[in-house]
Amino acid sequence: MEPRISAVTLGVADLDRSVAFYRGLGLQPEQVVGTQVAFFQFNGFVLCLYADLAADAGIPARGAGLTSLAYNVRAPGDIDAVLAAAEAAGGSVLRPTHDTDWGGRSSYFADPDGHLWEVAWNPSWPIDAEGRTSLG
Length: 136
Description:
The protein is α+β, with helices and mostly antiparallel strands. It has one domain (about 5-120): 2,3-Dihydroxybiphenyl 1,2-Dioxygenase, domain 1 (Roll).
């Protein structure tokens, strides 16, 4: 892995309420997808608000308050190498690599303390030479 976090995802109970809260802080979402997810561009990474993060990670429901870090790769084939490294280092794969409904590929692993990491390839989120992720 390169030293970068592409996105921080917060599991939320009510997407509309959460988007309104962040708008109240002066932040505007770049994209809101129905009642499921909203994306805010930060300096070099993306803040995601996700209404059903546990289901996306393939784990039992834990309600709102669940958080994951995301590491985006430059090519779809890079996901499995990151998962193999995570597993070899003592992590566990929670959801194998799969095609997504948003046109990319994704997987989840947990570190030894159970912290969620999504490893994803998103053709709409370019990664620049310095490793910064942006909403395309």
